[in-house]
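Case study B.
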Amino acid sequence: MASFSRSWKHVLLIFVLTIYTAYTAGPLFWVALMSLRTTTEIAHNPYALPETLHLWKFSEAWVNSNYSVYFANSVKVVLSAVAIITLVGGMAAHCFARYRFPLRKVLYFTIFSTIIFPPQITIIALFQILVEYGLYNSLVGLMLSYVAFQLPITVYILESFFARIPADLYDAARMDGYSEWQIFWKVSMPVALPALSTTIILNTILLWNEFLYAVVLITDESKRTLPLGIQKFMGDQLEDIGMISTGLMIAIIPVVIIYVFFSERLIQGMTAGAIK
Amino acid sequence: MNKQKDLSQPLGAIVTFLVPALTIYVAFTAYPVVRTIYNSFHEVLPGHPNEFLGLQNYVTLYNDKYFWGSVKNTLTWALTAPFFEQFFAILLALALYARIPGARFFRIVWFTPVLMSFVVVGIIWMWIFNYDWGALNVILRAIGLENLAMSWLGDPSIALPALILVTTWMWTGFNMVVLLAALHSLPSEVLEASELDNCNWPKKLWFVIIPMIRPTILNLIVLSFVGKMKIFDLVWIMTKGGPLWSTETVSTYVYKRAFEWNSFDLGYPCSIASVWFVIVLAGVLLLTFIFRQRDKLEY
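Model:
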């Protein structure tokens, strides 16, 4: 009797969890279906399965609705920002973790505390400054803002990792006559590969999805990133549910592909800031 | 100390390592913060020299009912959503901790929403909340609750709770994953001991499990609080602060005053941003302080 009630509870639990799973994944699945259907079909029944897979909608969006441009802009901005953040953040984190110098704690705390700043405290002045530097409405300006935006969390994650590397490794490297730069490049960075991949993943996902800086700092259609492109497309074609879904999938698919292959790394990267 | 040997002070190297990060930090973070605060005491119009106003912007702010409305909405969000997220996240984490078949699959799927852009999530949920064909109303009508079907984003008293539901949908899985990791790092003896003591589930949860993962829970609450205090994208996509200002957050209001209204003055939105900056910092310090105090009292 006891085992009967236990297995009954088990079934109920799995049932509830399945419902919750449908609730989390359902909306994304629904958009994936709609991205393959025309707006007329969707208007007829929004929840039907696709009868024919209208894959042409993706080439239509890619070519005629400028998604290829948005996609290329997003790739350029995100990849270059992440590369710079990783290098510059890695250098600073190495310095904070492995050397002692005046103001070290003050500087580290100043950068660290920026993590909780609301973006509004910088964004208006950043807009003015970029206009003055001639970097407003340019991908370089947006990219540099992204670097500054993600730098604190990157330094925070890397510093705690670099600080845990055994000192013997550094002593050995010094005895072998490594310069400080070589020590950073050949000891710290390779040893910290797990932490580096964590920050790379975190920064890539967050910047790929970023919207506020893009909407403030970019006006030209030819310079829009994907989230901005999608938002503007929706503003223009509010009723064209089918094509908007296709656009959404263009932004979602790269993330999902990475997630399918590296789910654990991705989860670990995204939660790195939350686990102490 | 062994550490001391490692820590030579090659000044040249230290400067080289720090200068790039500090340059970017000063140019794109520190200087903008200072300039925002400077702006907040001025009228800043394009093509005009800045005009010093003293505290006038702050006096205007004090009497700005739209600002206070947006503060109320944002605080409502920041003080409720973290607890909804934690509540569901703990239940889900416990379910997976009990070694349910398919736990790995559930965990991966539940985490997915947080990987999506707010733009993507916002558009999808606008459709789910659609009055005529949105999934929510379709389901309500299908199970015979027609009278509950409503225009979720069109009703000023419902729109904000609807948006809070969306952030809860998005972040519960994230919190669940972090809590699950905390549960797995607990010594299993404690949980087994409470099992032997014939504790029932709610008791075990409240007296054994939650106290043990409390640091993680508090950390997640602070993190979620900060996230909600900043929220912009989701509101901007779904409601633009409407209907009737009912979902206006401080972030969207700052954006509107800076870039949408025809006043062109950047000084006033900077004073809103400055005040909000202080409030967010104070909020985080206060939460950390309260949580620390409670820790001290109980341990």
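Chain A touches chain B through 90 residues (CB under 8 Å). The remaining cases will be described in the next quarterly update.
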